[in-house]
Every structure is written in C-alpha cells, then in structure tokens.
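Lab meeting, item 3. Inverse folding demo.
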C-alpha cells in the first residue's frame, strides 16, 4: 500500500473514531457516562481526533514523518483527554473505571511519544494494521453498545482494568527499550591523552606521545596508542591518534611494517578504534594478529583525525585519510620501543579499503621514504558515487550517507549539504552523527538509519557538484605495488557489480589487479576469523615481502 494511501485511510479512520467518540460518549467514557464533564471531554476528544484525521487526509505528502507525527500527536491528545475523563468521573462510576481510564491515558501518551522515534516502523505497522484497527474499533463499538444493555459484573469491570494495566506495562517496556537501543552503547570519551599540544609541530608524522594498551591486546603481543601530527584535508597541520601492535619480544633488527587503514567506526571523537575495548579487532583482525604474533610484523593503524582527537573526521575523503595513515607509519618509526623497516604492505577494509588504495596512490609523493610492497583492499568503497546511487534507499546506505552529510557539511561548506536533505531526513542524520559503528555499537546507528524514510541525498544533489566530489574520491592509480581486491558476493553494502566494474576499469587502464571473489560472504563475513580470505591475506602479504611475483587476474574469468 503506498504511503499516500496509508495516510488517507488512516486519516479517514481517525475521523470516524472521532465522530463515534463525540456522538457516542460511552465509547470513551464507559457505560455510566452521565456526568457533564465526561460527556464534554468525550466531545472534545472526538473533535480533536476528527481534526487530526482531516489533517492527515489533506496532508498526505508529508509521508512517513508526517504520518508518525500526527499519529503520535493523536495518541498523546487521546491520552490527555482520557486522563481528563478519569479525573472527571463521579463516584458512581467506580474505582475500577477511573483506574482503567488513568492506565489507558498513560499508555496512550507513552506510545505516542515512542511513535516519534520510529516514523518508518509506525508506517509499516499502519500499512499492515489499518484493516485490523478498523475491525477493532467496530468490535469495540459493538461491545460497548451491548454492555450498556445488561448489568456489568465487578469481575468484568476489573478485567478491563487489568487489560489497561497490561497495555501500560507493554507501553513502558516499549519506551524503555527504544530509549536504550536508540541511545547507543555507552563509550568512553577521549581523555587528556588525545588533547593536542598548544603548538602543533608543522612537520607531519611527528610522534607526540604514546601509552601502553592492555585491553584487546592479543597474547604474544604488546600494544600502544600514539598521538602524532598529520594534515587536514586543506593541508594545514593537524593531530591524529592511532595504535601500534608489535610482537611481545621483538628482535633488535627492524621488523616488517604493516600499515593498516581501518573501516567505518563512526565520525564522533568517541568512535576512535584506540578507545575501543577491541582496538585491533577491526576488519581482518584475526589475520592482523597472526601477522604480528606468528610472523613478527609491526602493525600501525591510524584513527584518522576527528576520531579520538577534536577535529572534523574526513570520512571517505580518500587523500585526507591516506595522509593520516602514512603519517601514523612515520610516527611509528620514531617509537623507541620497536624498530621497523621503511618497506611496508598496506591493508584496509571498507572505508579503510578506499583509504588503503589512496594510501598506495599518494605514497610516493607524500611519503617517499616508504617503499610500498603491496596494497590489499577488502570490500573497498572504491566507487563512492556508484555506492551512493545504488545504496541510497537501503539502511546501510542511509547510515553511511548520514555520516557523509554530517562531516562533508563542515569540510565543504559551499555545498550546504544539511540544507538540501530529503524531507524527514534531518533529524535521523543528526542522531546518527553521534552514534558509533563498531561491533555492537553499529545496531543503534543502523536502526536510526532504518527510520529515515527516504534516501538522504536527493537525486538532484547527487547529479550536481556533490556528485562530482563523490566521483573524485575514486582511487584510479597509478599504484606503486601489486594490488589485491577481495569482495564478498553477498555484500549488501559494497555491491559486487560495482566492485567488478571498478576492477575492470583499472585493468583496462593497465593496472594489474588480483581480484578475488567469495560467494556467500557479506561485507563483515568477508574479513571474519573463519573466512577463507583470512589465510589468503597472510599468504599474499608474506609473498609481497619476499618478492614473489604477483598473480593479477585481469583478463581471467
């Protein structure tokens, strides 16, 4: 049933119920609705429901947000007036009827408030429940008419009270559960360690401070968080945080360096991986642990600016992320607890996959002291414009779009992004901006995304200057080393057909790509511990270090 039809039918339903409430006072007030106050409140309640129903019927273009607002408002008004009726009842009505009315009033108000947080869910419920709702109202009218004609036993009267109490319990549980789920998982805010010095050194890649990590450090390894200098997207000096993971007992000789770009964890400062209880679990965490504890590598991961440190996170801005990644590796080489080589292999998953490709692309110009021996991108957001178009109406796409809207609105103020969002999107976009996307933290962000009724960015925005900027985030090379791209064929976020198209374009441009696909694996499962990709990543990385000839797949298959 289309949104417009749902709104019209629901509006008509409110009008009918309002008329019934006003004209048949015992529907709202009970069998003994003889007092003037109760009759008046019934007429007022009925009139309000009629007005709200008419508003729905003449304003169907408001869609899910408007429908949810009007339904919520109607429920709250219904609850307030039902409460008024409870107060206005005379002693002859009995304690049970007053208690029933009071419980119903509180339940109605509670559900009305919850409705504001779930506009799309409200629409879905009404889409499938409008007919049932009218049946309920009809039965309620019939039942009310019948019980007027025969004495009502105390048992029947208190059964209604028990039912109203049960409805209140359910409503409160719904409100409590919604508040807990949508609020997100409590996360630690960055402490003094993440505070930038008064005078930030202009040289990028300068190690400023470090401290040992204990949480989430695998057996056989040692971990640290670091603070170092880097650059903003405009090239000005900035500060970023990150992590280092090294073997527990490293040799005196320089260790191979693994440069890691992490995937989406959010855009707020509290979403930094170095603040997480599992700081090394992002992306291919099992393969990362094996590289460090079994093969003696040092892994360095940038949080990116704005995560941990106070700044605007350059979310999916490829070159800016790449600078942060390379500067983290520069800072690691100044860390006196370990010694690393200037030869490195770069890894990244999802957002980090895009960042890994960009890191390889700019390494020779931005950080020429490093020799990149390989670039591995797992389900990378390689074609950002294509993903924005294909994922625009899906939950994951809306969540990612919300992160883009919040960050790019400040990074590119000339676009005025938040002023051009689709109707009903702004509130959800703002809420998602403060929610992280890491492990269990991802659920609240996705639920908020599910309640954005339309695509976040209108098509005219995607087809304009904003779309051109999205296209400019595609890494095209040249790449200084062999490139591995891994893709799950059941990935709902990074579409396999878009990844294949990007690989084909790079192969056509003369860039040899080792493209590996994995049937049945989704975006997250691709880099899970039991994924068939896990041992392949380790083997491929060691091969790059040993100088084994790469195995590009261009033209194969």
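The presenter then showed the designed sequence:
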């Amino acid at each position: 049933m289309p949104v417009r039809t749902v709104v019209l039918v629901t509006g008509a339903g409110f009008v009918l119920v309002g008329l019934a409430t006003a004209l048949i006072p015992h529907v709202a007030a009970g069998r003994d609705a003889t007092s003037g106050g109760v009759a008046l409140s019934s007429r007022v309640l009925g009139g309000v429901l009629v007005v709200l129903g008419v508003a729905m019927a003449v304003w169907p273009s408001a869609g899910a947000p408007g429908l949810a607002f009007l339904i919520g408002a109607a429920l709250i008004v219904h609850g307030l007036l039902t409460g008024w009726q409870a107060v206005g009842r005379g002693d002859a009505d009995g304690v049970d009827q007053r208690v029933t009315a009071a419980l119903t009033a509180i339940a109605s108000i509670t559900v009305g408030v919850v409705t504001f947080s779930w506009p799309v869910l409200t629409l879905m419920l009404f889409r499938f429940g409008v007919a049932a709702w009218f049946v309920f109202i009809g039965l309620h009218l019939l039942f009310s008419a019948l019980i007027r004609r025969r004495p009502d036993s105390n048992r029947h009267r208190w059964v209604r009270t028990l039912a109203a109490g049960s409805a209140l319990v359910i409503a409160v549980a719904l409100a409590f559960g919604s508040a807990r789920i949508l609020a997100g998982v409590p996360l630690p805010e960055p402490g003094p360690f993440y505070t930038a010095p008064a005078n930030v050194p202009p040289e990028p890649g300068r190690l400023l401070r470090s401290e040992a990590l204990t949480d989430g450090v695998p057996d056989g390894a040692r971990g640290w968080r670091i603070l170092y200098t880097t650059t903003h997207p405009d090239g000005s000096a900035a500060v970023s945080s990150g992590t280092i993971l090294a073997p527990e007992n490293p040799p005196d000789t320089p260790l191979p360096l693994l440069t890691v770009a992490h995937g989406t964890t959010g855009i707020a400062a509290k979403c930094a991986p170095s603040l997480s209880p599992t700081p090394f679990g992002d992306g291919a965490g099992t393969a990362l642990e094996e590289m460090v504890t079994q093969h003696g590598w040092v892994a360095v991961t940038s949080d990116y600016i704005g995560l941990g440190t106070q700044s605007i996170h350059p979310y999916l801005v490829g070159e800016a992320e790449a600078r942060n990644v390379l500067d983290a590796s520069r800072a690691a080489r100044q860390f006196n607890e370990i010694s690393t080589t200037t030869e490195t292999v770069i890894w990244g998953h999802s957002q980090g996959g895009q960042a890994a490709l960009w890191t390889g692309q700019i390494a020779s110009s931005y950080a020429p002291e490093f020799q990149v021996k390989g670039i591995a991108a797992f389900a990378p957001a390689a074609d950002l414009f294509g993903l924005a178009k294909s994922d625009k109406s899906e939950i994951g796409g809306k969540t990612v779009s919300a992160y883009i809207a919040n960050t790019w609105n400040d990074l590119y103020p000339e676009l005025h992004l938040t002023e051009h969002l689709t109707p009903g999107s702004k509130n959800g976009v703002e809420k998602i901006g403060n929610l992280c996307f890491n492990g269990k933290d991802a659920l609240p962000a996705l639920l908020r995304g599910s309640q954005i009724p339309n695509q976040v960015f209108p098509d005219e925005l995607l087809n304009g200057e904003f779309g051109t900027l999205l296209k400019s985030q595609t890494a095209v090379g040249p790449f200084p080393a062999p490139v591995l791209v891994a893709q799950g064929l059941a990935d709902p976020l990074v579409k396999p057909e878009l990844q294949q198209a990007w690989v084909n374009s790079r192969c056509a441009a003369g860039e040899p790509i080792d493209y590996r696909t994995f049937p049945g694996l989704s975006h997250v499962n691709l880099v899970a511990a039991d994924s068939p990709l896990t041992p392949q990543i380790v083997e491929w990385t060691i091969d790059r270090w040993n100088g084994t000839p790469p195995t590009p797949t261009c033209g194969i298959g």
